[in-house]
Each structure stands twice: as structure tokens, then as C-alpha cells.
Amino acid sequence: MQEQRGGNFGLREEIKAYWSERAATFDSHPGHEIGSAAEWRAWHALLTRHLGPGQGRAALDLATGTAVIAHLMDDLGFRVTGLDWSEPMLEQARAKAAFRGRDIDFLMGDAEFTMLPDASFDVIVTRHLVWTLVDPPAAFREWRRVLRPDGRLLVIDGDFVSTTLLARLASVFERARGWMRGGSGAPDEEAVRLARAHRSILERVPFAQGARADRVAGLLAEAGFERIEVDMHLGPIHRAQARRMTFFKGADRLIQHRYAIRADMR
What we know:
Blueprint: H1 8-22, H2 37-51, E1 58-62, H3 68-75, E2 79-84, H4 87-100, E3 105-108, E4 121-127, H5 136-146, E5 147-158, H6 165-180, H7 189-202, H8 213-222, E6 226-231, H9 235-242, H10 247-255, E7 258-264
Helix pairs in contact: 1-7, 2-9, 6-10, 9-10
């Protein structure tokens, strides 16, 4: 993928292309698709804690990807719309929903400029979207626009930039395991290319230093959201995910700066 450093349009296109390439294997990575009944229960508990029961309320899953969050919201009784700008991701999402018999609407659109009607949703949920935003303040204002007057936003995200000692040990361990299995211990060319594309994107987004909870919460307040609450208690989700990871990766997941931020329209 050719790098384009000339402006936001180029960066947006790179982000879209990157996630489109990741679509086919996205669900195979621990921490993306739900991997166990324990993790499913932990996600339901988090969403219920902040959003309450669905009761047919209209929910928008922004950057839905393969619709992991959309399915969780559907479980809880929300009337869900999933929006994503990657057609390969939407293809995966639609196929999964059809296989599971879910009634979820999927739309193609940009999470930063949805083109959806004003005041059309009771709830907006995002997972691992904020760190990729090209213009976070404008995106947050856009999300306020499509929420109803008593609506609520739930942002689930984290600092995926700052690396811990455990993360570095995990990388060393993975290389060593590859070498012991008869390989070179080096990642394959495709993995290297995608890692470089990811790093190139990350260097140019506003949260290049990490989407820390306090900064995200501050920008939400500036955009007009009220009663903002930061929830760092995601341990049950992370413990369930860690069981599917190598020791060092799992331990790192437990100490990473990950959070949920709840914000109201008023």
C-alpha cells in the first residue's frame, strides 16, 4: 500500500485500506471476536452496566467491523445498526449475522461523517475506533448530532501505543517459538508489511501518543457531552481474553490502559 502523506484524505484512505485488508482474518485474533462464554458474559455485563436493557432502543455500532459489538447489543434487546466504511468488513459482518440469524442493519459510511439523520439513535457504541480518528473533536460533535436529546455514548478503547515490558517479552517469545519450530523466528513478509502500514498510520493520527482516557474524556466534554464517566474495570473481559493468549501476551492484556467512557447528551 503506497503511503500518502499529503493530508487527511490520504490518511483516511490508508486507514480504510488497512482495515479492509485485515477483514478476512480479523475474527481469528484473540480480543476481536468473542472467544468464550465467560468473555460473552463479561461483555454483556459491561454493556448493561452502562447502557441498561435494550428494550428496542435504537443503537448505532460505529466502525462495526465484523459486528462483534453489534451482536452483543442485539443480545441485549437493542435495535442495532452497524456502520463501517470497509466493504470487506461489512461482507464479513453480514455473513456472520445471516449465519446466526440476527436482524441487524448494516450501512457503509464514515464514522467521522456518518451522513445519518439528526437525533436518530438512543445509543452509540464504539470499540477500538477512537484511536484511529483523523479529527476527534469533529467526530465527537458528529456523534452528538445523531444522538437523541437523552442519548448516551459508550466509547471502549485504550492506549495501544505505549508498550510495556510484558509486550516486549511477548514479542521475543513469539520469535523464539518460531525459531524452535524450525523457522527463522522472523515474522512473514505479509505480517511485516501490515505492521509497517499500521505504524505509518499511527504516526499521523491525533492520538499518535496513545488515546489515554483522560484526554478522550476531555475532548468529549469540549464537544458538549455531559456526565462523563471513565470505567477502568474491564478485568473480567481481559481475563477471559488472556486465557486464549500466550503467557506474556495475556499478562500484558491485564495491565494495558484500556477503558470504557460513558457520556450523556445532557
